[in-house]
C-alpha cells in the first residue's frame, strides 16, 4: 500500500525486507485468529512531521537535512533517505544556508538559535503536543516552580523539554527514582512528563513523588498524548485474550516499547516488538491461537499490512479489528510550509494525511 496526499506518493514497498522462508501453518488447539488493535499506527504529530519533510523536499529540493530521526521509525527514515533527506545528529553538521527540519520530538531553544546562527532555513516539525509541554516548562519555571520531568534520560523529547527550563528541571526516569531524587525546593514543585510514557507507570511515579513531596502540583492537563493513551487502551483491551501480542515499531520508539510492556502487564502470554514482519520467528507462533497486533505511533500502516500477510501464511487469516477510540485529529503543517512562494496561504497544506 502507498499513501497519497495530493501528488505525494510515499512508502513504496520495495524497501521492506522480505522473509527468506514463509511462516509455516502449524496446527494449534483452537481457532487461529488475529485481534487487530485500533487505534494503532500513525498519530497526527507523526503524520504532520513526515508530510513536512515531503513538502520541504518538494519546495526546496534535495538535500533536505533533518536533525535526528524525523520520527522514530527506521522504515520512514530509510524511505525519506532514498528521496534525498540527510539525517544528522547536530545542526553543526549542516552546510550553511541549507534547509533543516527539526523532528517531531522537539528541540531546545539552543538548537533553534544555533540553526539561526548558521543561516539555515529551519522548519520546525515539533509535534504541537510536545510544544505544549515546552510551553508549560517555560511558564512554570517563570513562576519559580521546580519541575519534576518524568521521562527517559537521553530521549530527544526529554532533552528538548529540559532545554526550555534547564535550571528548573529534575528528570525522574521511573518510580524507583521518585524515591531517591533530590530537589532544591519542596514547596513549589510541579510534575510534567514525556508524551509517550506508560500511563500506569507514570501515575505510579507521581504517587511515589507525592509521598515525599505532598505539595507537588499536577500539570493543568495530561502530557501523555492522546495517541499514546489510545494505543495503550486498545492493547489493554485485547491483551488478556492473547497468547502473543506483536507490536510493530522501532526499538527507539518509546511508545512502541511501552506497548510491549503494557501487553505483558495486562495478560498477554508473550509479546514482541518488530520493525518488520520478516523478524517474526516461527517459534513465537508455537501453540498460539490468538495473536494481538498493534503498531506504534510512528509506524506506517504498510508495515502492519505486511505483518498480516506473513501471519496469513501461518494460518492466521481470521482478523478482527477491536476499536476502542476514534481518531480524527489533524495538525496544521509547520508555519514555514503553510505559505507558497508568493506568501499566500496554501489551504492544501493545512492538516495532515487522512487514512494513513
Ligand atoms: S506520539 Fe503524541 S506527542 Fe508524539 S508525535 Fe504523536 S501525537 Fe505528538
UniProtKB/TrEMBL annotation:
<dbReference type="GO" id="GO:0019288">
    <property type="term" value="P:isopentenyl diphosphate biosynthetic process, methylerythritol 4-phosphate pathway"/>
</dbReference>
<feature type="region of interest" description="Disordered">
    <location>
        <begin position="336"/>
        <end position="356"/>
    </location>
</feature>
<dbReference type="Pfam" id="PF02401">
    <property type="entry name" value="LYTB"/>
</dbReference>
<keyword id="KW-0408">Iron</keyword>
<protein>
    <submittedName>
        <fullName>Unannotated protein</fullName>
    </submittedName>
</protein>
<keyword id="KW-0479">Metal-binding</keyword>
<keyword id="KW-0004">4Fe-4S</keyword>
<dbReference type="GO" id="GO:0046872">
    <property type="term" value="F:metal ion binding"/>
</dbReference>
<dbReference type="InterPro" id="IPR003451">
    <property type="entry name" value="LytB/IspH"/>
</dbReference>
<dbReference type="GO" id="GO:0050992">
    <property type="term" value="P:dimethylallyl diphosphate biosynthetic process"/>
</dbReference>
<dbReference type="GO" id="GO:0051539">
    <property type="term" value="F:4 iron, 4 sulfur cluster binding"/>
</dbReference>
<keyword id="KW-0411">Iron-sulfur</keyword>
<dbReference type="GO" id="GO:0051745">
    <property type="term" value="F:4-hydroxy-3-methylbut-2-enyl diphosphate reductase activity"/>
</dbReference>
Amino acid at each position: 500500500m502507498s499513501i497519497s496526499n495530493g501528488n505525494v506518493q510515499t512508502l513504496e514497498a520495495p524497501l521492506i525486507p522480505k522473509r527468506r522462508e514463509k511462516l509455516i501453518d502449524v496446527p494449534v488447539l483452537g481457532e487461529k485468529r488475529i485481534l487487530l488493535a485500533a487505534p494503532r499506527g500513525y498519530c497526527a504529530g507523526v503524520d504532520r512531521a513526515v508530510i513536512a519533510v515531503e513538502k520541504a523536499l518538494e519546495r526546496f529540493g534535495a538535500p533536505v537535512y533533518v536533525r535526528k530521526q524525523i520520527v522514530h521509525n527506521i522504515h520512514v527514515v530509510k524511505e525519506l533517505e532514498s528521496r534525498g533527506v540527510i539525517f544528522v545528529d547536530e545542526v553543526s553538521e549542516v552546510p550553511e544556508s541549507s534547509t533543516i527540519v527539526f523532528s517531531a520530538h522537539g528541540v531546545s531553544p539552543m538548537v533553534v538559535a544555533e540553526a539561526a546562527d548558521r543561516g539555515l532555513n529551519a522548519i520546525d516539525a515539533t509535534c504541537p503536543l510536545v510544544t505544549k509541554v515546552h510551553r508549560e516548562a517555560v511558564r512554570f519555571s517563570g513562576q519559580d516552580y521546580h519541575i519534576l520531568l518524568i521521562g527517559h534520560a537521553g530521549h530527544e523529547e526529554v532533552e528538548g523539554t529540559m532545554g526550555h527550563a534547564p535550571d528548573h528541571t529534575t528528570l525522574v526516569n521511573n518510580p524507583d527514582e521518585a524515591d531517591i531524587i533530590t530537589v532544591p525546593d519542596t514547596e513549589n514543585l510541579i510534575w510534567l512528563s514525556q508524551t509517550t510514557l506508560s500511563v500506569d507507570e507514570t501515575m505510579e511515579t507521581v504517587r511515589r513523588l507525592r509521598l515525599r513531596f505532598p505539595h507537588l502540583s499536577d500539570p493543568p492537563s495530561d502530557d501523555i498524548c492522546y495517541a499514546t493513551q489510545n494505543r495503550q487502551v486498545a492493547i489493554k483491551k485485547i491483551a488478556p485474550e492473547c497468547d502473543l501480542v506483536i507490536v510493530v515499531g522501532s526499538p527507539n520508539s518509546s511508545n512502541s516499547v511501552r506497548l510491549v510492556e503494557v501487553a505483558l502487564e495486562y495478560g498477554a502470554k508473550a509479546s514482541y516488538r518488530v520493525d518488520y514482519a520478516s523478524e517474526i520467528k516461527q517459534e513465537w507462533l508455537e501453540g498460539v491461537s490468538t495473536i494481538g497486533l498493534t503498531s506504534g505511533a510512528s509506524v506506517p500502516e504498510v508495515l502492519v499490512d505486511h505483518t498480516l500477510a506473513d501471519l496469513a501464511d501461518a494460518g492466521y487469516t481470521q482478523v478482527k479489528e477491536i476499536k476502542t477510540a476514534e481518531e480524527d485529529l489533524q495538525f496544521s503543517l509547520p508555519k514555514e510550509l503553510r505559505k507558497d512562494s508568493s506568501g499566500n496561504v496554501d489551504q492544501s497544506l493545512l492538516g495532515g494525511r487522512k487514512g494513513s
